[in-house]
TrEMBL record:
InterPro entries (alphabetical): Folate-sensitive_fs_Fra10Ac1
Region described as Disordered: spans on this chain: 142-212
Protein known as: Protein FRA10AC1
Annotated Basic and acidic residues bias: 142-168, 203-212
The species this protein was found in: Botryobasidium botryosum (strain FD-172 SS1)
Length: 212
């Protein structure tokens, strides 16, 4: 009497779901495809259709240093996106433009890309083509860390500044800075002996010697 199907269609995985789970940014070309699982074969087939000379990036979270990269598709290669235009997908110069509007100067950069894939940390050198504004975004966090490091070093007191704050020991009699010897110890000052006023007065009162 028209019983409905008992199968749950929501539990079935599409090729897109399989691709998201098994996709890799870089594949080992030396690995035999016959040893791959069905999921890996789907991801490897899609990876073979990509062009890995230049990458497309997303700089939405550039201040935190998190940058998304992916390889270009065939349609993007044919239209020149990411090679003849800025690779930042959010840039106004990302899409091909008419000849009336000239593109800014584009810079080709080879940047280290560190990422985590299936719980494993990996890294690769990737080429991207960016305009000057997007290049500054890509380098923003590293430049900010460099400026903070330089500012921190300038705020530290220098050795010469600390030495200038040291005060020489004062002599107990004169309350003036005492001279130091080569070992840094206060030297003893020799006071000149002067005649007392009484003795000086006696010398002045003495009569000159008589002449014979």
């Amino acid at each position: 009497y028209g019983s409905s199907s008992s199968g749950d269609s929501t539990s079935r995985k599409t090729d897109y779901d399989v691709l998201k789970e098994s996709h890799k940014f870089l594949w080992d070309d030396d690995k035999d495809s016959s040893q791959l699982s069905y999921e890996e074969q789907v991801a490897a087939k899609y990876n073979a259709s990509l062009f890995k000379e230049y990458a497309v990036c997303d700089l939405k979270h550039y201040k935190s240093g998190n940058v998304a990269l992916r390889w270009r598709s065939e349609s993007e290669v044919l239209s020149g996106i990411g090679q003849e235009t800025c690779a930042n997908a959010r840039c106004e110069h990302h899409q091909p433009q008419s000849e009336r509007r000239k593109l800014p100067v584009l810079l080709t950069l080879e940047v280290p890309f560190a990422y985590v894939e299936h719980g494993e940390a990996k890294s690769a050198l990737v080429k991207v083509v960016l305009c000057e504004r997007c290049k500054k975004k890509l380098m923003w966090k590293k430049e900010k860390e460099r400026q903070d490091r330089v500012q921190g070093e300038e705020e530290r007191p220098s050795e010469s500044g600390r030495d200038s704050d040291r005060r020489l020991p004062l002599s107990p009699r004169s309350q003036r800075p005492a001279a130091l010897d080569e070992q840094g110890r206060p030297t003893k000052t020799r006071r000149s002996r002067s005649a007392s006023p009484h003795r000086a007065g006696r010398r002045r009162s003495e009569s000159p010697p008589r002449r014979s």
